[in-house]
Every structure is written in C-alpha cells, then in structure tokens.
UniProtKB/TrEMBL annotation:
<protein>
    <recommendedName>
        <fullName>Aminopeptidase</fullName>
        <ecNumber>3.4.11.-</ecNumber>
    </recommendedName>
</protein>
<feature type="domain" description="Peptidase M1 membrane alanine aminopeptidase">
    <location>
        <begin position="274"/>
        <end position="499"/>
    </location>
</feature>
<keyword id="KW-0031">Aminopeptidase</keyword>
<keyword id="KW-0325">Glycoprotein</keyword>
<feature type="binding site">
    <location>
        <position position="350"/>
    </location>
    <ligand>
        <name>Zn(2+)</name>
    </ligand>
</feature>
<feature type="active site" description="Proton acceptor">
    <location>
        <position position="347"/>
    </location>
</feature>
<keyword id="KW-1133">Transmembrane helix</keyword>
<dbReference type="Pfam" id="PF01433">
    <property type="entry name" value="Peptidase_M1"/>
</dbReference>
<keyword id="KW-0812">Transmembrane</keyword>
<feature type="binding site">
    <location>
        <position position="346"/>
    </location>
    <ligand>
        <name>Zn(2+)</name>
    </ligand>
</feature>
<dbReference type="GO" id="GO:0008270">
    <property type="term" value="F:zinc ion binding"/>
</dbReference>
<dbReference type="GO" id="GO:0005886">
    <property type="term" value="C:plasma membrane"/>
</dbReference>
<dbReference type="InterPro" id="IPR034016">
    <property type="entry name" value="M1_APN-typ"/>
</dbReference>
<dbReference type="InterPro" id="IPR027268">
    <property type="entry name" value="Peptidase_M4/M1_CTD_sf"/>
</dbReference>
<feature type="domain" description="ERAP1-like C-terminal">
    <location>
        <begin position="621"/>
        <end position="734"/>
    </location>
</feature>
<dbReference type="Pfam" id="PF17900">
    <property type="entry name" value="Peptidase_M1_N"/>
</dbReference>
<keyword id="KW-0862">Zinc</keyword>
Amino acid sequence: MGWCLALFALAVLQLSSGAGDYQLPADVTPSHYDVKLAYDLDPATNYSYFGVVDIMLVANKPTSKIVLHAQDYSIVNEKIALKGQNHQYRVMGVHLNDTYNFLTLDLDRPLKEDSIYKLTVPFYGNLQIGLDGVYISSYVNKKSKKTEYLIATQFEATSARKGFPCFDEPIYKSTFSINIGHNKQFTAVSNMPLEASSNENSLEDYWPWEVMRKSFKKDSSDFVWDQFEKSVPMSTYLVAFVVSSFSYVDSPRELSKAKFKIWARDDAIDQTEYAATIGPKVLTYFEKFFDVPFPLPKQDMFAIPDFSAGAMENWGLITYRETALLYDKDQSSFVNKERVAEVIAHELAHQWFGNLVTMKWWSDLWLNEGFATFMASVGTDEVEPSWSARQSHAVSNAMTVLTLDSLESSHPVSVAIDNPSRISEIFDAISYLKGAALIRMMTMFLGEDVFRQALHNYLIKYSYKNAEQDDLWAELTRATQQHGGLTRNVTVKQVMDTWTKQTGYPILTVSRDYGDQSLTISQKRYLSLGTGSTLSSWWVPLSVLCQGEPEPQTVQWLADDEGVDQEYRYEHGAAPDQWLIFNYDMIAPYRVNYDERNWKLLTAGLRRDSGTVPVLARVQLLLATYLQNESEYLPLSTGLGALSKIGHVLKRSPHYGAYQKYVRKLIRKAYEKVGGLAVKEIVNGDDLNSVKLQVLMSDAACAAKLPGAEENAIELFQEWMNYPPGPALDGVLRGREAWVGARVALRPGAPAPRQLGRRARPPAASTSLLAGRLDTVSRSGGRTLRQFWQPSPRRRSATILNHGRRLGTIIKILLDQFTTQKDLDERTPSTWRRLGCQCHKAWRRRASTSRGSSGTRRWSSPSCGSTLRKSSVYSARYHRGQTHPQFHFVKSFRLHGQSNLNDKT
Ligand SMILES: [Zn+2]
C-alpha cells in the first residue's frame, strides 16, 4: 500500500510483546469464500446494503468455537448457519469482541478434525463516506455540475472485515467468488474478470427482494447482479471492488499478455494515456525480471477521487489516488510524471512480492514495502531509461533513511506487531525506504544475477503461500552457495539480521596511516544528536575507491564484532597524497568520517575536478564548500537540502542575511549555467534531471535572493496568470515549475493567490500540485524542527542546550565567510534600487546613522522589510586564513542528509 509519511508514528512506536491473543486461533482454516453483496449507491436511501458470505472451512482440530473477524454491520444471529458434510450444526451463541473485532460462534458440538464445513453469515448495513473498508467516494461532474458517487474498497491492513465477515489475517489465503448487485447505471469491477451478469437477486435465499426493497425503495429491475470469476488464492486484504460510473481506456494490446484498463471519472479520462502505456510495459518487464508470469488475465487500475494512501496493490485491481495515476501532458509537471511512473511500478511489483508471496504477519511488512519500493526504481528505469531512476531513487531513499534513522525514536524495519490497531503505524518511511535501501544493498553485495535467481526460486517455492524474512534469506544464501556472491564466510541471515532487527545504522570512523597504506575502522551507531550510546553493531559491506585507481576494490566486510571494541585494520591502494572514499556507490545506509587529512585531500580533489569522485559519493559528502564547483542535480540537491535545514534554523535570526549570502556564493555558477529563471523557459524540457536541476537552482536562487531571480519568477508567474491557457507558456511554468514563481507571488501582500484557481485543471494540474508542494515545504520545515528538537520531553532541555551551541557555531562560521564589513554589506542602496525597492533613501539614512556605532548594527529596508543585521562581535575580526570553526561547520553539513517528504508508496 502507499502511504503518506506519518512522522509522528515514529515517535510513538513502542510495541510491547504480547501473548498472541490478538490473533485468530488457528483451529479452522478457510479455503474459499462466496461473497454476495447488494449495494444501493443512493444517498437518499443512505447507501444501504445487504450481504451474505459462505465460507468453506477445514477444521484443524476438534473445536466447538469458530472465531473470525467482523466489523461495522449488523449480523442476524439466527440466520448464521454451519453445515458439515452430513450434518447441520446449531449456533448456540454469537459474540462480538470490540477490541479485536472477533466474531465468535459457539457450536452445539465440536467440529471434526480435517472435515470440511460451510459457514454462512448474512449481514446488512449502511456504507459510510470514508477511506477504508467498503466506502463511498464522491466528486463533482464538471459537465452536469452534479455530485456523483462511487463505491471503493481499501482493505489493507485490517479492513476486509468491514466488507464482510472473514478471517482477516494475511496468513489465511483463500479463493474468492464475488457477486455484486448494484444499480444498473453503474459498472462493477473486481479482482477477477466479470463472468456473468444477471437480473436475478443472487441474495434471494437470505435477503428476498421484498426485504431489500424496504431499504432500497426501488424495483429489482433497477439492479443488476455481476458475478466475477473465482480468484487465485489470496489474502483478504487484497480483495477489492469498485462500483462507479467511470470510463476506461484500454492499453495497447501488444504491450502485455494481461488486459490492461485504466479507469477514471469522465472529466479526467484524457489523463490516463501515460498510465495506459507504461503500466503494461512494466508488468511485462517484471514477468521477465522475476521469470514468473503474472497469473491473472487482466489488470484494472482505478483513479479514486478520495483515497487515503498513494495507491493499493489489490490483485488485478489496483486503486490509486488520482494524482498518483493521472498525468496531463499539457499541464502536469515532469515531477508529477516521475511520481506516476514510480507509483505504478511500485504497485505492479507487489503483484508478485506481497500478492503471490505474502508475509505471514505484519511484522514483515517492511519486506513487502521495501521490496516494492526498490522495484519501483527498477521498473521506472526500464520504461524511462533517461531518468536514471535507479540512481535517483537510491539517493532519495538512502538520504531520508540517514536522517530519520539517526533519531533515537526510530525503530527496526522488522518490528513485532502485537496489536493489530498499530499495524498502520509501520507503513512509514523506515519500512519503505530503509527496506528499499537494504534490498538494494543485497543486490549489490550478492550481484544482481544471484539475487534474481534466488528471488525466482523464492517466488516459485512460496507461490500462493506465505513466507517470512528468514525464508528469503535462506533462498539467497542457497543461491550464494551455488553461484558465489558473499566474500566472507557468512550467511545472508547473519548479515541482514544486523540491519533489520536493530534500529539505526553505523557511522564508520576511518583513520589512515599515511606511512604504510593502511587504515583502521571503528563502527558505532550514528545518532543525529550525538548523545546516548548503543551496543549495536553491523555487518557492514565496504566499497572503497582510491584516487587514481581505475577499478574500485571488490566489496569487503566489517563484521559485527569488528571495529567495535578495537579498531579494525585494512590495507588500501591510495598514496599519501591521494584521497580514498568509502561507500562510493552508496552500497548501504551508513555514514563515514575520515581523518582530517583525508577530508582535506577529498575537498581539494573535489575543488580541482569534482568529476573524479563518483556522483553517489559526492551526494553523501555534503561538503558545502565544494558545491560551487558542482553541476549535477543529485549532489546539488542533497547539498542544498542539507544547507536549507540550517537556513530553516537561521530564518528568524538576524544572521539569515549572512546565510543567504553564503548560499548565493555557492549557487551562482550552477544557477547561471542551467539558465535559471532569466531564460524564461525550461531549457531542456525533455530531460527530467535537467528540468529538476533548473527548478532546484531557480528555487534556491529565489530563496537566497540571488539578484534578479525573484523578479524573474514573479514576472513569469504574472505572465502565466495573464495569458490564456496554452502549451507554450504552461510548458514553462506548469506544475512544480510554476511553484517557484508562485512561491514568490504567494507571499503576503502579493496579488496572485486568488487567481490561481482559475487556471486549475484538477487533479494533475498546477494548483493541486502547487498546493502539494507548498504543503511539502511547510511540512518539511515542520519536520526539520521536529527532528531538531528531540521529541522526548525529559531530554528537551539538554537538547536545546546542545543545539544552542551548534547554532552558535553555525552562525559564527557563516559570518566567517565574509572577511570584511564591505563583504557583508552586499545590499547597497543601488541594489535596492535595482530590485525596485522604493525605500533606498530611508535605507541609506538608517545605514548612515548606525555607521560607527558599537554593539549590534542593523540595516533595514522599511518598505520591503528586508533586514541585514550583524553583531559587531563578528565584525571583520576573522580572515580567510582562520579555519578553526569551519571544520565543525563542514562536519555538521556532512552529517546531515537531505529530507525527502514526498508522499510515497
Ligand atoms: Zn506498497
């Protein structure tokens, strides 16, 4: 399932171990469900519905109790029936447990072991407008201006029980035959293809029409009953159906064996073309990648107007939030297209990993989600090779993990879940992104061929069954033993347990001996606050690159008992005047700190020619001072992302001006090189990374107030607002591209915001995207603060003190960047004049009165509110030769990754 980042969940995830009374007793096992449902999709009759489920069961032991799940509907106790092969049982008592939604049936005699039974439970209720179970969604039809309604489902993790009584745990795989009665004007779609439609009430035996008519207030001739084919064996959380008046487009038939249809409301059906093309392509590629065919004859994909997650991988019927499936080539941004491809590939990967082979219990959720998140990059890379998706996903996943998992409040990816109500808490960044980083790590230390072979074996062995992480480790180890892969005598389980069962990740401290080409390594858990200690240690794959060496060394290992109590010694190939770098290919989520001389060698090397250090290494280094020589998107994005965290902290301080000036110095070259906003067009519009770079630099230029950037942004935005809609200018300023301009224009006092809606063309159009981006910006700031201030109240005062010191250091070093007063006084009256500020005279007057005074100096522009202030304690005392605080400054940059807060799946 997709998720919206739930940061608070990290802080409250304190799961205790329990006795297992939250799970169903394994006394009986379901093998097949006949689910018959009749819905009246009519607000006037309060969306009433009737249902009956026949469940075929096998008794695993003699028992006179059957326990299953049921929630949110009425059950007619006297209508519940249980039939043996030649005996009708009597149900003596029916109990519903509100905590775990257990429906317990007391029988008049015990079931016989290994015998087959049919349990029948009729029920009825009213659907609610909501986001889980079977729920009502709505939208306004643009043509008729009327509100239209649809029925959608979201059963993961524990809401299938809201749809019908069932054994609602992933371990209970069954086949399903689904029959849906609905108003004739709608179309019903389910996991499997439609088998037959009938005008006869299929629930007649339990709910005669005269009973239903009292609720529906309609004739049976207004309804149709759709029977869907029997499904493959699957878990309840993957069952799905949609009843709607949506339209669909067919994918080109030659792209996949399975028939693909993309469904959306009529107003948005013209935005389905991209999904219709890449969906079947990705599915076909995954069949090849896993060497396991997709078992269903069709794949429907629905854009649902109200949807809680990003998307849900229901087998054969994937449901999406509209913005995760629809793409309008005239109005959506490139970043939106990237998101659509990523989510589609993620959900299609689940068709194998999650649907075909399913976790035994939710504690292995990370394996499902981590795997699908990793495969999203593989699938996207296949259909959009120019995007370098494998590289960019690896960076964004790992950098987010490095930030979140450095908090003491983080949690292991493999986490015990002893209360089903808390399952939703682990649909978080750690499960998805650290999971993906760890899967990628395995592909790298085992080699992709060995990894794929083992994966194939695993998927075949556990098809239509359940497995847990140890089962995958066993297959991977077996493949390794046959084909090689691990360079140390260790099993995949031994390595992976240190990464999946422990919170956090290590920081390696590398100290070179410049006399004999050796170095020592020590490892300990990295905590962003640098406080506390843990006994954790890891099996760390070491990928090392030495300057001048044509080939990197093969992966070596630091075992979980090495570098812990004493430093561990290695030899390397770098000469004393050459740098070496660890984790140059980002093989695993860990940080590295070097001795000062190696840092200096690296910095000097990067300043000379940044291209000599691989991109994935530059991304992690976050050496602020070399950024002015950087021209690639990923390192600039992570570097500026880390800097912006400091910007957030300084924003309300008088030193923010100095920070902005420092950033201006770093970005000026890259901004001018990519064209920035002055060129008034997206320079290389077909190249995703080029577009992202131009947007990144334009945004940074506006934030840092690079002369002319804001003015250009406002100008472009105004042009966009004033011109009639058209591809040319929309191409320049659509979606996220518009955000740069709009971000400026939306500041208090600017005239634009109310006009925004006029150009909106939901759902993929600029306004919704813009809102999303602005939301991201605000949440990003919020997260930075949450991370900055330790969540635990008892540690807060220590934290404030700690960060107060760090903040002081940062400010001091920022001001060190400017050697003279003149250097700092960049905004002269002529600058204000150029920027159109009418208050330069006032500015000049104020500046002249403060000149020569002691204490804090302050210059401000009264009408535009810009302020530049500098405490005299930092006046030109320092000069460039003094470097002592700079080391800490750079170090703090190195140790903080970029945040990535996009909604993910
Ligand atoms: Zn997922």
